[in-house]
Amino acid sequence: MDTTSRLIMLLEVVEQGSFSKAAELRNIDRSVISKQISKLEEELGVRLLNRTTRSFSLTAAGAEMVKKAAELRLLLQDTVQMAENYHQEARGLLRITSSSYLGKYYLMPVINDFQKRFPQVTIELRLDDRVIDMVSEGFDLAFRVGEPRDSSLIARKIARNRMLILATPQFIETYGEPKKMADLAELPAAAYTSNHIRFESISYIDEKGKQQEQPINPVFKSNDGEALLEKVLSHNAFCTAPAFFFADHVDHEQLVPMLTDVNLPDYSAMYAVYPHRDLPVRTRLFLDAARHYIGDPIPRWEHNIPRINEIYQPK
User: Which UniProt keywords apply (predicted)?
Assistant: First the structure.
């Protein structure tokens, strides 16, 4: 391993916050990371880290080296991308990260078709509902609901993302159909919940054009869309969710939209996110394929929802 590689390894240790997490990122033993950082300190003739048994801190020299390492990594990435752009054909490794449900049901068909067209492209798909650091973890594309918080990343809208209030016909028969938003507070609900998102109320626009929040009664919470679907299909709860989650089941009349005269604002749109504008051929072609399959010009799931342009719209 050369000095450049060791500098980038130091950067990863700092970004990940520990030797163990940096080792996990590279799928190597923690001791390898420790030895390489020690060798880097020997090569440079300066201490970079103050270490204890449980933590570390950067020295002044270490902080400066980390800045240089970040610049070096960016330069290397740009150099590789520049070289790849001279290829006329898509080839090489394409690393994609996505939320689990979106990846399974909407990206996998794109990936299968794409690799038939471009067999020299290897694709790694990482399904993870946590928001990752694309640059430090080396991903080319991310597909997410909502714009990225990192302003250095580039976000391209893939599709709009409407909200629905859904229940099974059996649920409505048992509990009665709500006539107004306030009725929802008395009904059992299934709600998406994660470290960053909690659906404990429903946003809607009232008759005066003002946004309101209607509290709901979540009796079941999960960070997995399939688990929420299973709960709703058990006829024991209703759910409010983005349309792409449950569109097929609305089409097959397993789920029925409720309170369709209410004006529900869209949930955050779906975006493709990438770190550089100068995309390699394989990344650019895959992005175009994903946009065409998922949302060009109408989101794929909206084709499966009857009267989608009539329900939950301003009156």
Answer: DNA-binding, Transcription, Transcription regulation
Give the number of other CB atoms < 10 A from CB of residue 264: 21
According to DSSP, the residues that pair with 234 across neighbouring strands are: none
Residue-wise pLDDT for 240-287, tens only, equals: 988 888 888 887 789 999 999 999 999 888 999 998 887 888 999 999
Give residue 187's Cα distance to chain centre: 30
For residue range 32-64, list pLDDT tens digits in order: 999 999 999 999 999 999 987 778 889 999 999
Residue 96 contacts residue 107 (beta carbons within 8 Å): yes
The 8-class DSSP code of residue 263 comes to: B
Nearest to 90 by CA among 122, 111, 121: 121
Please work out, in degrees rounded to the nearest 5, the angle formed at the alpha carbon of residue 234 by the alpha carbons of 230 and 238: 85
Q: Which segments of 176-259 are extended strands (E)? A: 188-192, 201-205, 211-215, 217-222, 238-242, 256-257
Helix axes 30-44, 3-16, angle to 10 degrees: 120
pLDDT value at residue 14: 92
pLDDT digits (tens, 9 = 90+) for 86-100: 566 788 999 999 988
How far is the C-alpha of 92 from the C-alpha of 83, rounded, in Å?
12
207, 177 contact by CB (below 8 A): no
Total-model pTM? 0.70
CA distances for 183 relative to 176, 236, 250, 261, 312, angstroms: 10, 16, 22, 14, 17
Rounded Cα distance, 133 and 256, in Å: 38
